[in-house]
Amino acid sequence: MCLRLPRNRHASRTSARRLHRLQDPGPEPHGGRRGEISLGNYGYNRQFFRYDTGEFGRGTRAYFDASRSYVRTWPNDQSGRSERTHADLRVLQDFGSGNSLRGTIS
Predict the structure, then answer these.
(1) Do 27 and 62 touch, CB atoms closer than 8 A?
(2) What are the DSSP E strand ranges found in 16-59?
(3) Which of 1, 58, 65, 83 has minimal CB crowding within 10 Å?
(4) Dihedral of CA 88/24/30/62: which sign?
């Protein structure tokens, strides 16, 4: 996959949004949950959880996801650390004929 960076002063944020759109299919039509745990060198660990409501009402569906990651940036304990905790809530209302309304809280 190749992404072209736009030539403006917000190139990195714009590109990140484009990449997010490619990777996020939106709320699933059927409910469910999934999780993931990753471990690695330098104390790396990452936890991810996502819950999809499935369709409720007329064409409305949503998901909630949360993640946490941690890693030491260098091998010894005196080095820096990188931690991130993040959560998203997205609701999608499908009106049919290719029309929809989407809201996200991040």
Answers:
(1) yes
(2) 32-39, 45-52
(3) 1
(4) positive
3-state helix, strand, coil split of the chain in percent (to 5) is 15, 50, 35
pTM of the model: 0.68
Place of tokens 């997205």: 90
Q: Quick: pLDDT tens for 7-37.
A: 444 444 444 444 445 566 789 989 999 999 9
- Decide: residue 70, CB within 10 A, 0-12 exposed, 13-18 middle, 19+ buried: middle
Short-list 75, 55, 73, 72, CA closest to 63: 55
Cβ atoms of 69 and 46 within 8 Å: the answer is yes
With contact defined as beta carbons under 8 Å apart, do 75 and 66 qualify?
Answer: no
Supply the DSSP symbol for 41: G
Residue that has been written with the tokens 């998901």 in this structure = 63
